[in-house]
Structure formats: C-alpha cells, structure tokens
Amino acid sequence: MRGHNEPVLEVKNLCSYIPTSRGVIRPVNNISFSIGAGEIVALVGESGSGKSVTALSVMGLNSPSIKYEKESIISFKGANLLKMKKRQMKKIRGNEISMIFQDPMSSLNPLHPIGKQIAEPIQLHQGVSYKKAKKIVLQLLEKVGIPDPENRLNDYPHQLSGGMRQRIMIAMALACNPSLLIADEPTTALDVTIQAQILNVMKELQKDTDISILIITHDLGVVAEMADRVLVMYCGEIVEEGDVYSLFQNPQHPYTKGLLASVPKLRGASEKHLHTIPGTVPNPLELPKGCNFSSRCSFATDKCLSDAPDLIETGKDRRAACWQIVDSQKEEVTVHA
Amino acid sequence: MQFRLMLQRLFHEKLAFVSMIYLLLLVFLSLFASWIVPFDPNEQDLSKVMLPPDGTNWFGTDELGRDVFSRVLMGAQAAIQAGLVAILIPLVIGVPLGIISGYLGGIVDDIFMRIVDAILSFPAILLALGITGALGVSLWNAMIAIGIIFTPQFARLARGQTLQVRREPYVEAAKISGAGPLWIMMKHILPNILSPIIVQASFSFSLAILVEASLSFLGMGAQSPQVSWGGMLQQAYSMIFVNPLMMLFPGIAILISVLAGNFFGDGLRVAFDPKMKRT
Predict the structure, then answer these.
(1) What is the pLDDT of residue B99?
(2) Which InterPro entries does the UniProt record give (chain A) (predicted)?
(3) For residue B245, what is the domain's CATH number?
C-alpha cells in the first residue's frame, strides 16, 4: 500500500480563462484535486477537456494568453506555484517537478547526443560539468532499461527507436530526482508492446523512488494498468473522481459510464457495433447552460439543462458531479429518515 | 557525424566542390600574397608600360609598368578581407538580434524589427557610400559599411528560423528541464538554425566581394597603395581606349570569385537540406 499521507501537489479552484474576441473560453473551470506522496493519479478525458492545460499550469508553462482567476491555487509542497516568480519556478522545473511528453520523436533535440540531453537538467540545477553529470546519466540509462549505456551515450536521437527515445525522456525527467512527474500521454505515440514496456519502466521507477506521478491519458487501459486514483475531466471540469477499482467497477457519472462502455471488449457478448457516446464535445464558446454533459446525456432532465451540478462526495474517496447522484442521495436520506 | 555527411553530399555537387576548392585557394593566396607575388605590386617600371601577357609578366603590365598578376594576387587580399569582415559583422550582431527577437517576441521583437526595416529601406550602395563618407574613406570602413548593410538580412533570417524552431517540442522539453531563455537560445535554437545562416553567409560573402569592388571602383573603398580589384578596374576604365586588355584580369577575378561564392552557397543549401537526400 502506498502512503497517501501528505499531498505533494494540491490544486484548489484552478480556474483559467482565455479572453477572445468572441467570448471567454475556460479551458479549466474550477477544478480541485490533490496528489499524495508516491501516488499515481490519472487524469482522463477526451481532447480539449483541459487535461494538458492543467498539466502545463502546474509546470507554469501555459501560453501567456491563458490567465488564471484570483482564487486559483496550485500548491506544491506548501508553496503556491501560480504566485511564484519566474526565477523560483525555473528552480522547480526539471528539479522538483518534471514532465514527459506524448511524442518522443520530436521531444529530443536532433543535434545533441542523448547523453548530453539527459545531463542538461543536472547541469542546469546542480551547476556541474557534463563530465561530472555523466556518472548520473549512466545510472539513469541503466534504470530506464537502456542496454549498454556506455556506448549509447553518444548516440543521436535518430539512431534510437520510439520506445528507446521515450525511455530517454523518462531518464531526462528523473535526472534530478523530482518528487512529481507529469506524464502527458506518455504512450500515445508508441505501439502496444512498447507501451506496456514503458508503463512497466515507469511503475518500477515509481516503486524505487516513491515519486508521485500525474498521468494524463485518454487510454483507459493505461489508467487501469498504472493509476491508484482517477480523475475524469469533461469540458474543463472534473466530473468524477475515485480510486481505480471502484471507479472502473462502479462508475457514477454518465460520462464515465459511457467512456467505460466504449472500450472495445475482447471477450464476452460481442455487440455488432462499438458503443459510442452520442454527439460531440460542445464548442467551448457555447457551453450548455446547465450540466456540460447534458446535451449528450441520455438521463438528462430539465434540471440538468438549467443548472450545473456540483462535484459532491459520493462515498469514500469518491466524488461525482451529476444531478442523478444528488437526487438518489436525497432519496436515501429521506428513506433513512 | 553530421559534418561528414554534409561534406559527402557537398562532394556530390561537383560545381560547389570545385568552388569550395577555389575559395580555399583564394583564402590561402590572400594570406600569403605578399610572399607569393613575383613582383612588388606597386613597383613601377616605366620602360615596361602596358605590355601584353608574356613569360615574365603573366597578366601583362599596367599604365605605370606594374605587374598585373602580382596586383591581382594582392587584390585578392582586399576582396577576402572584405568578404570575411562583411559576414562576420552580421553573424556577430544580426544573428543574435534575430534569435532574441524571434524567441522573446513582443515589444523586443517590434523594436528590433523596426530598426531592421529602417536599414533595409535604404538602397544598399547608397547606405555604404553614406557610412564610408561618415567614417572616412578606407577599405576597413568600407568593410564595416558592407557588414552593416548585410546585418538586417541575417537578423530577419535568424528570426524567421527561430520562430519555427521555438515551437519544437524539444524546446518545450528544455523549458521543463528548467532551462532559461539564454540557455535555450544558445544550446537549442542556434545549432538548429545554423545551416540556413551558413548558406546565407556564403552568398553574402560573394556579394561582399562585389560591393567592395564597386566601392573601390567609386573611390570609396581601398585607397592606393592598397591594391583592390575594384581599384584596378577603375584604372583600367580610364585606359579603356588605350589598352582594353587591362580590365580583363581584375574583372575575371571578380567574376570567378563571386560565381564561386554563389555556387558554393547553392551546394551548401542542397547539402544541408534534409529533404534532398541522396542515396
């Protein structure tokens, strides 16, 4: 059992907005969550649901056009990252918090040998020469499972396969022993067998170093494989949260239910068609008045169309934002009374 | 690794390769011209005025009996110097300015680019004449003037390339590693935009030779006793009806050098272009 005591990262009321000529877009709308030490949390949602904006907010690397509401807090080890000066933030990036990307093909500079690139954060944060950093680099390469690290050190990115490059990215991210790793769709660009390898590498490293991981994905397989806890995002809001077992077994929000039903099944009663969620994600400039999911939800009532539900506690470590659940809880209360 | 690949590709471009050899030879000659020349290029011998080419005076002699071959060799010195200084100034000033304004954007970009626009709005040769007029007439000042004229082009090129490269994920990855703007510009952006800049430098080198010749021809460049191809042409011009042969050799020297610079630049462009892979 992993320790979930003190949260490493605590996001409170994170609210970002982009003023445009046609109105205000809210990529992330009032979300709160925390990540404990040594915990792996998955952030799930479709494209445009605000997953990456959340991650980049933590890194402080969102484009300057994205602004934050005053009450937003991203607290990392007690310090609010959103209020931090650039110089302080630079010390945290790559040192305390690091990140790996979706596409390992273009995330490495084609002109530098990989050894030098992995050494970069070490050189930046510890002010040592490449020669001194090399030792750590060799250990890192071994840790992420690169055979014959000594000879790989001077290879250029184009000489390595996609999986290898993602390992290099992981090594680079872990170079300074960060306490939080953000993995933004780390396996999306890789084929399935390599995906499994990369996930294994990350899991092993997590066990060894007790690092916290925020893994961003739309692949529920990855979630089941990796995560302790899951946050489901839709249109910039968290619609459901729970530990991985209970969420997969007992999804409460209709969107989560739809997502899980849409996963192709290998065994059991095979339907002719793959299950889909009807409709498309609403235009961020014209979000529905009530619940964001109401336009696609088969359970939607008049209330859903007029008022947005709050994210409420629905059980032990479970939260969901749906009127259905609110109503059923009320019923329970009345029954008990 | 990459350098060797590039050389290999350059070797396949025969014309560019020959040009490279020629330019290297020219640099070598200009470095050691004072020792190589058969005659003192400024030694007058009025008994041998305007001789046609022969065994001793390979390119003949001019109206003061000076050996034209020696003078063409010495003229290479002025040409190469002008070429090098004229690309060094934009490389040292223009490229960093371009990278900074491309990477930082915003108000910095606006200010730098308006300065560049202002310089570009002057006709090049007029600007050069103006600068040499203001600084005083000498080869050195002419070279500085040429360098200043070329700076905007390099700044624009560097800025444009930077705009492309700065969106690359590896730049983002460097930011995530905690790198600041200076580190990113030096380690990630500069190496990745270098090849088009080298190509541009090669073209500018040959253009600089041409501009230097023009300035010297107009009397605003190298001053006697310093020998330059443009100055030689000026002399030949005044003798055009007496001995038209005199302008042949400095003219050919300018022509070949400029062509070589252009061919070399073309070859480099092909060699650097990842899309034009050869088997």
Answers:
(1) 95
(2) AAA+_ATPase, ABC_Ni/Peptide_Import, ABC_transporter-like_ATP-bd, ABC_transporter-like_CS, Oligopep_ABC_C, P-loop_NTPase
(3) 1.10.3720.10
Residue with tokens 């310090």: A79
Smallest Cα–Cα separation from B211: which of B139, B154, B267, B116?
B139
ipTM: 0.80
In a domain? residue A2: no
- Say whether A107 and B170 touch across the interface (CB within 8 A): yes
Q: How many residues does chain B have?
A: 279
Would you say residue B3 has pLDDT above 90? no
Q: What is the pLDDT of residue B111?
A: 94
Q: Is the pLDDT of residue B186 over 70?
A: yes
| Residue A40 counted as domain residue | yes
- pLDDT tens digits, A150-159: 999 999 998 8
Please return the burial class of B138, using the count of CB atoms within 10 Å of its CB with bins 0-12, 13-18 and 19+: middle
* CATH of residue A227: 3.40.50.300
Check CB contact of A125 with chain B, cutoff 8 Å.
Answer: yes
Tens digit of each residue's pLDDT (9 = 90 or more) over A178-215 = 999 999 988 888 888 888 999 999 999 998 888 999 99
Domain residue limits at A50: 7-96+176-262+272-336
For A45, other C-beta atoms within 10 Å of its C-beta total 25
Across the interface, do B176 and A169 touch by the CB < 8 Å criterion?
A: no
Say if A120 falls within a structural domain. yes
Distances in Å between the Cα of B130 and the Cα atoms of A17, B144, B218, B255 are 53, 12, 13, 26
Is the pTM higher than 0.95? The answer reads: no
Buried b (16+ CB within 10 A) or exposed e, B152-179: bbbbbbbbebbbebbebbbbbbbbbbbb
Q: Tell me which chain B residues have a C-beta less than 8 angstroms from the C-beta of A101.
A: 169, 172-173
